[in-house]
Write a structure and sequence with these properties.
Layout: H1 3-19, H2 24-40, H3 42-60
């Protein structure tokens, strides 16, 4: 997919989110984040998201019994 196609898809996504009454800043943030992930590659984005998720869940677990207390 070319950069122009991704740009048009991002614009369409922003418009759809605005029709659904999402705040414009959130619509642009979501569209920009997804567009960045599409341009840079899904694998890179997935690896970063996985690392953030593991870090977040590790901080929520109890140190002694490893449960979600």
């Amino acid at each position: 997919m070319s950069g122009v196609t991704i740009g048009f898809l991002m614009g369409a996504l922003v418009l759809v989110l605005l029709v659904l009454r999402v705040h414009i800043a959130m619509a642009m943030l979501v569209a920009g984040g997804l567009g960045y992930a599409m341009v840079s590659g899904w694998g890179r984005w997935a690896a970063t998201s996985r690392r953030w998720l593991l870090r977040a869940t590790r901080s929520m677990t109890c140190r002694s019994c490893h449960c979600f207390c």
